[in-house]
Amino acid sequence: MNLLRNITACSRQMFKFVILLTGIMSGVFTCLGSSPYITEHDIHFSQKQDSLSQRRLNLDIHHHSDAKGLPVIIWFHGGGLTSGQKSIPPELMDRGYVVVAPNYRLIPDVTVSECIDDAAEAVDWVIDNIENYGGDPSRIFVSGHSAGGFLTSMIGLDKSRLEKYGVDADSLKGLIPYSGQVITHFSDRKSQGIGELTPWVDRNAPLFHVRKDAPPYIIITGDAEQELYGRYEENLYMWRMMCLTGHPDVKIFKLDGYNHGDMAAPAHHILLQEINRILSKPE
Predict the structure, then answer these.
(1) How many CB atoms lie within 10 A of CB 76?
(2) Residues 206 and 182: beta-carbon distance below 8 Å
(3) Is the peptide bond before 108 cis (omega within 30 degrees of 0)?
(4) Kindly report the CA angle at 94 between 90 and 100, in degrees rounded to 5?
(5) Angle at 110 between CA 107 and CA 112, to 5 degrees
(6) Do residues 255 and 232 touch, judged by C-beta distance below 8 A?
(7) Of 126, 118, 131, nearest in space to 47 by CA
(8) CA–CA separation, 211 vs 256, rounded Å?
(9) Distance between CA atoms of residues 197 and 186, nearest Å
(10) How far is CA 16 from each of CA 7, 24, 27, 124, rounded to the nearest angstrom?
(11) φ and ψ at 25, to 5 degrees?
């Protein structure tokens, strides 16, 4: 009987210990699960006064709640310049960066040139305001997928786009387009009656603005056999021409086995890897 009482008492004590430990660990996991990062949505960035701009030209910012001087990634969405919506890739969140996702107006409501201008205005706004969100305006990287990659290249290579807003494109820390067109965008060609398979290069083509003094330029594409309309090959030519100009930091990555849409998720690893490499270079 005494042995039974002792076992019962030990069981009660063990049960109390388990309950106490569970409570402690629950508190620990709650603490570990909380994030110091927050996302602010729909911040208007444009000085344009038309109603479409007032509705459309907003951005989201994912930032640390109290850290300062963090590198900044500006991420432009894809959608052929005719569709799409700002979003912050989960792979870029809570990684020690301020991430900004702007919208831009879309075709057919505006022209391709106006899409590019919206992207340039968004970058200007970020440079002027990002310190308020813990970002470093001297360490801004621009990136995006598909149409977003096209916009990345246009505002970073065609210096006139940012000069309109008093910004030197060469002050950007790096350009990292994903599967962006470097010939004239197919939406632009379509408006001119030029077919999707007809190569065309004019002032709205990143390839027209190849130059050796641009920021570091890192190209990422999907599989050559699964990309859109020779997208890898045109980017390979872009890489070659940038090299021939004497650009000191230009790379191209081809993600075998990934099509145009699927390549973005694995490309984020390369984006972060290359940003860290560029930031580690001596000034």
Answers:
(1) 32
(2) yes
(3) yes
(4) 70
(5) 70
(6) no
(7) 118
(8) 28
(9) 9
(10) 14, 12, 17, 60
(11) -65, -35
HEC-encoded secondary structure of 133-185: HCEEEEEEEEEEECHHHHHHHHHHHCHHHHHCCCCCHHHCCEEEEECCCCCCC
145 φ/ψ sector (left φ>0, alpha ψ -120 to 50, else beta): beta
Instruction: Count Cβ neighbours within 10 Å for each residue of 214-232 and write b for 16 or more, e otherwise.
Output: bbbbbbbbbbeebbbeebb
Tell me the pLDDT of the chain (283 aa) as tens digits: 444 444 444 444 544 444 344 443 433 333 445 789 999 999 999 999 999 999 999 999 999 999 999 999 999 999 999 999 999 999 999 999 999 999 999 999 999 999 999 999 999 999 999 999 999 999 999 999 999 999 999 999 999 999 999 999 999 999 999 999 999 999 999 989 998 889 999 999 999 999 999 999 999 999 999 999 999 999 999 999 999 999 999 999 999 999 999 999 999 999 999 999 999 998 7
- The residue type found at 171 is S
pTM of the full predicted structure? 0.88
Tell how far CA 128 is from the center of its chain: 18
Angle between helices 112-129 and 147-157 (to 10 degrees): 70
Give all strands (DSSP E) within 37-116, no chain letters: 37-44, 58-64, 70-76, 98-102
Cα distance between residue 182 and residue 172, in whole Å:
19
Give the tokens for residue 54. 């007032």
The region, left, alpha or beta by phi > 0 then psi within -120 to 50, assigned to residue 193 is left
C-alpha neighbours within 13 Å on the C-beta side of residue 260: 16
Q: Which of 183, 211, 203 is nearest to 195 (CA)?
A: 183
Of the candidates 227, 225, 212, the residue with the CA atom closest to the CA atom of residue 146: 227
Strand stretches in the chain, DSSP E? 37-44, 58-64, 70-76, 98-102, 135-145, 174-178, 217-222, 250-255
